[in-house]
Design goal:
The protein has a 7-stranded mixed sheet with strand order 3-2-1-4-5-7-6, with helices on both faces. β4, α5 and β5 form a beta-alpha-beta unit. 38% of the residues are buried. α1 packs across α4 and α5 crosses α9. By secondary structure, it is α/β, with parallel strands linked by helices. It is globular, with a radius of gyration of 18 Å. The longest helix has 19 residues.
Length: 251
């Protein structure tokens, strides 16, 4: 039986291993939530795409208690972890790569802001185009997508891209001084070895939680897909190295 306290402990451990890849993760969260707050409504409807165990969603409702935040993910283990830790959040289990995913949300008004962090790069470019097009169909005019992730620009500005990665690597070295937290694989090996997660782990094989196909790690892939989906403005709102907060405004 997964308890609330045990779930919170696993999520704290998740956050630590994520910070090993993103030493400025909390700053990016802060800037993203600043942008949601500045978008104009005290009670925004927010979709958290690829929410994982709900780290960003929980921070959003802490800062913006009048917001309605809907966390969405395809991974039953991460969703189960989030539901145990944050029972107040209405987690939705679905695969963004499945056409018609927005209908499963049963929304009663247009979405004000969609957010995502370190998730959408796992989606291959053809699927990414479809995801952004469907997202645009439920965002209000002027609504935002805020996507925090590592975005590379090797195809357009390779010298700058190398410098961006170097800046990120040096920041990581400064923060951790060679003592990085456990990595992503170690965290997954540990949680799937816990018998409390046996059923949720077994469900992962048929839930669309796998990362198949090529990744969309280039900034240009996201910008092109967003413009094709009808987003009028696309740009970087915050950046450190190749870690960016990409913002897109629906036309």
């Amino acid at each position: 039986m997964l308890t609330h306290d045990a779930a919170r402990e696993w999520i704290a451990r998740w956050d630590r291993q994520q910070e090993g890849y993103l030493p400025d993760r909390e700053e990016r969260f802060k800037v993203l939530i600043d942008a949601v707050e500045a978008a104009g409504r005290p009670d925004p409807l927010v979709l958290d795409l690829g929410c994982g165990p709900g780290s960003l969603s929980a921070r959003l409702v802490d800062r913006l208690p009048k917001a309605t935040v809907i966390p969405v993910d395809a991974d039953p283990l991460l969703i189960g972890l989030g539901r145990a830790a944050y029972p107040e959040l209405p987690f939705v289990s679905l695969d963004l790569r499945t056409p018609g995913w927005t209908a499963s949300l049963a929304l009663d008004r247009p979405v004000d802001v969609a957010v995502s962090t370190t998730a959408l790069h796992w989606i291959s470019e053809p699927d990414l185009r479809r995801v952004y097009a469907e997202l645009a169909s439920v965002l209000r005019p002027g609504g935002l997508l805020l996507n925090g992730d590592h975005f590379d620009s090797d195809d357009a500005t390779p010298a700058l891209s190398r410098l961006e990665r170097a800046v990120h690597d040096r920041e990581t070295e400064r923060v951790f001084a060679g003592k990085e937290p456990e990595d992503w694989r170690t965290w997954w090996d540990a949680i799937t070895a816990d018998p409390d997660f046996a059923e949720l782990d077994a469900a992962r094989t048929t839930a669309g939680a796998d990362h198949h196909g090529s990744e969309s790690h280039l900034l240009s892939q996201h910008v092109t897909a967003l413009r094709e989906a009808g987003f009028a403005e696309v740009g970087t709102l915050w950046q450190r190295g190749n870690n960016r907060l990409l913002c897109a405004v629906r036309g």
